[in-house]
Write a structure and sequence with these properties.
The chain has about 290 residues and is mostly beta strands. It contains two helices and 16 strands.
């Protein structure tokens, strides 16, 4: 009787081993293939919702700013690190600086160095989502040589892509030269609301030659800052500030605050840069479960 039970157990073990070997893919050396691809279900034979997931590596919002093809020369700046771009030629009068992430927050410092211990322009940038609202600005660089220094002041887990280009940025603020201008006194602020079909906004800040100190905020709801820029220029006439802000969604408001004393007013020009398809006011927005 003991021999009979032993034979049954051995027969069950052999059957299970043959079944596992028949259903397990083998490589050329006869070893078991335990790679991730071999364990993923085949979309041709799997049921609904069991197809192999795909990874989208296409960057979003790539066609924006003064030079849409600038991301071909982008560099990765890790959290806490510094990258510099130096232009020795005096023919470079302005450059476009662009920053973005893969969807994480963006926190950076941008400095313009001209000679030892001379920083004529400084910017502090914060963006809640660097993929949905990438940063783009034009920095004036007269009388070279000049160096653009970009420091990622975020954590190591928040890298960003940075690019600095000097071509095709000659007429960056040409569309705003004829736009309405508003003088903002020192310590005052002004807001600019925009319709939902406005996809991006351009901002130009200047002074009459005095220093420029300003804070630019993109709000989407009460006290909900999506993007914040703190700008300093030692000469707002020689180095005006020009930037393009992405404004997806509805309820976008641009708020400009002159953080300088009352003796240093600034002139602000704000207008739409890129328009989408305006929605018919008679068409409702349908929500709820499908």
């Amino acid at each position: 009787m003991k021999f009979y039970y032993t034979a049954l157990v051995l027969s069950a073990v052999i059957s299970a081993t043959n079944a596992f070997t028949a259903n397990t893919p083998l490589n050329l050396q006869g070893h078991v293939d335990t790679s991730l691809n071999s364990m993923m279900p085949d979309p041709a034979v799997s049921g609904a919702g069991m197809s192999r997931p795909s990874i989208n590596t296409t960057p979003r919002n790539d066609n924006y700013g003064v030079n849409p093809g600038k991301w071909e020369k982008s560099l990765l700046v890790q959290g806490g690190s510094l990258k510099t771009w130096t232009y020795s030629s005096p023919a470079v009068e302005r450059v476009e600086v662009s920053l973005r992430t893969d969807g994480r927050p963006l926190d950076a410092d941008i400095d313009l160095w001209q000679g030892p211990d001379n920083t004529p322009s400084k910017m502090r940038i914060y963006v809640e989502d660097g993929a949905l609202r990438p940063f783009s600005a034009v920095v004036e660089t007269p009388r070279g040589p000049n160096t653009i220094a970009i420091r990622n002041i975020g954590h190591l887990e928040f890298p960003m892509s940075a690019t600095v280009v000097a071509n095709d940025v000659e007429s960056s603020a040409a569309d705003l030269e004829g736009a309405p201008r508003r003088t903002i006194q020192g310590g005052a602020l002004h807001t600019y609301p925009f319709d939902p079909f406005v996809e991006s906004v351009q901002i130009l800040l200047k002074t009459d030659g005095r220093p420029l100190n300003a804070r630019i905020e993109l709000l989407q709801g009460p006290n909900n800052n999506k993007q914040v820029m703190e700008v300093y220029c030692e000469d707002g006439l020689d180095r005006p500030f020009y930037s393009i802000i992405e404004t997806p969604g509805s309820g976008n408001v641009v708020r400009i605050v002159n953080t300088a004393p009352v003796e240093f007013p600034l002139t602000a020009s704000v207008g739409a840069y890129k328009l989408g398809n305006p929605q018919n006011a008679l068409e409702p927005v349908i929500g709820g479960d499908p």
